[in-house]
Please model this.
Amino acid sequence: MPSHSLFEVTKHGSLGNQIFNILRDRILNEEYNHGDKLNELTLAKEFNISRTPVRESLKQLELEGLVESIPNKGVFVKGFKPRDIDDMFEVRKILESLAVGLAIDRINDIYLAKIKDVYDLMEFYTKKKDNEKIHDLNILYHEMIYQATQSSYLMQVLKDIHYYVSVTTRHSLKQHQRMETSLKEHKAILDAIMDRDKDLAKSLIVSHINKSQMLVRKYYASKEKKR
Model:
């Protein structure tokens, strides 16, 4: 794993929070495996910092349910269980359905153009079969819908959830022809937004999330069987 200098870690936010973000990314991107031990001293040496911010970040990870602290043994990676993933998707369906409805009520030409621009890029990179680029654009597409609600509160709630779901969605995009079908679903959602058809847009976005949920559920179920 690449090391991080003190400057890189502290340039945004508190040191403990930055370490938390780095470790969380590693867990969610499966750079750490279920059951791996996170050693406080080893991490402090890697980041060239004191143990205090590392300890703070490990406590944050425990609150998020991503690690487990066992007395006299240490801190161990838990990662996600299939039920955790399902819960996140269920919450996301409710909130994104609300978001797309509000977006249609409040959207203006500027926000509509932003969503369309992202879709056009998705179309371009789908033809190139660039999985990583499509993953990033998928996140951006949904964030543009959040922005179109012009609700800072809803945007923050959705972004917190979407951070976790976006990591797991990477696995669904790798499934056979999922990039192509996902593009069609995003186009249908965009068309419904442009037509100001709230009922259709809500139905389409829930269906889109359902399909991703099923693929991600299969991925994590297969991982559980291998343990």
Summary: Confidence is low (pLDDT under 50) at residues 1-12. The two ends are 24 Å apart (CA to CA). Residues 198-226 form the longest helix (29 residues). Strands lie at 37-38, 67-70, 74-77.
